[in-house]
Amino acid sequence: MLKIKNITKRYGRHEVVSELNLTIPIGSIFGLLGPNGAGKTTLIRIITGLLEPDSGSISLLGGKPRDLKVRQQLGYLPQEAALYPGLTVKENLQFFGRCYGINGAALETRLAELLTLTELTEQKNQLVEELSGGTARRVLLASALVHRPRFLILDEPTSGVDPLLRRKFWKWLRALSLEGASVLVTTHHLAEAEACEQILFLRHGKALDVGEPKALMKRYHAPDLEAAFLAATLEGSP
Ligand code: ADP
């Protein structure tokens, strides 16, 4: 689904992604865990085709990130709200659907499914500017799913979201992955990382380690992921 081989990206002389390798199989939920400045956003920009790496190769959904066919199968949930505040929940979703060429009865059916999934049916006629942060986050998730993406990228999806909603988010993500979509979550929150099937520890643009959360904790004899991350960092230091 996604295969990144040896990519490097520099800004001037500053190497922000260094010889990174990453493989995400079909139907998996993969976490990119790293502190601020680790290179997560840069990596997302490369995967979504907004940035070209200086070297290395990337194959996504059988093509290259900039191929139209590939972009049409990508879903992206940004950290910052990207909704139209003066439109209702449903109007926002209709807008995103039409951007992907979904219209008429097909669009209505998809919207009904998404409103049910994200439990937004009751709020569908409310203006986005009147919604709470958590509800707006759900609309954003629904908007990222409107075209049934096969590869979904979520930037800190549940940061600032209450625990109940976080749990529901993960339930929805698992449902998507069971349908065969792959999910890439970037986060510096341990709770988010723990819910992923596989995680990559990223620091200063370098992959420190990759594996299942439990396996990583075991490998470093660590009680939690934070301790495992620290141990991996120390092991990687000269
Ligand atoms: P993260 O998302 O993990 O916080 P980023 O990918 O945003 O990390 O940033 C990685 C590093 O690249 C940081 O040191 C940041 O200052 C630097 N950086 C990001 N974007 C640019 C840019 N456009 N020009 C120069 N440096 C940048």
Written account of the structure:
With 238 residues, the protein is α/β, with parallel strands linked by helices. It has a single domain (21-39, 49-210), classed as P-loop containing nucleotide triphosphate hydrolases (Rossmann fold, 3-Layer(aba) Sandwich). The chain contains 9 helices and 9 strands. The protein has a 6-stranded mixed sheet, with helices on both faces. It starts with a strand and ends with a helix. Bound molecules: adenosine-5'-diphosphate. The site of adenosine-5'-diphosphate has 11 residues, from strand 2 and helix 1.
- Give the helix proportion (percent range): 25-40%
According to CATH, the homologous superfamily is: P-loop containing nucleotide triphosphate hydrolases
Strand order of the main beta sheet, please? Answer: 5-6-7-3-8-9
Q: What is the SS-derived class?
A: alpha/beta
User: What fraction of residues sit in β-strands?
Assistant: 15-25%
Give the CATH architecture: 3-Layer(aba) Sandwich
Pfam family, one: ABC_tran
InterPro entries: AAA+_ATPase, ABC_transporter-like_ATP-bd, P-loop_NTPase
Keywords: ATP-binding, Nucleotide-binding
GO molecular function: ATP binding; ATP hydrolysis activity
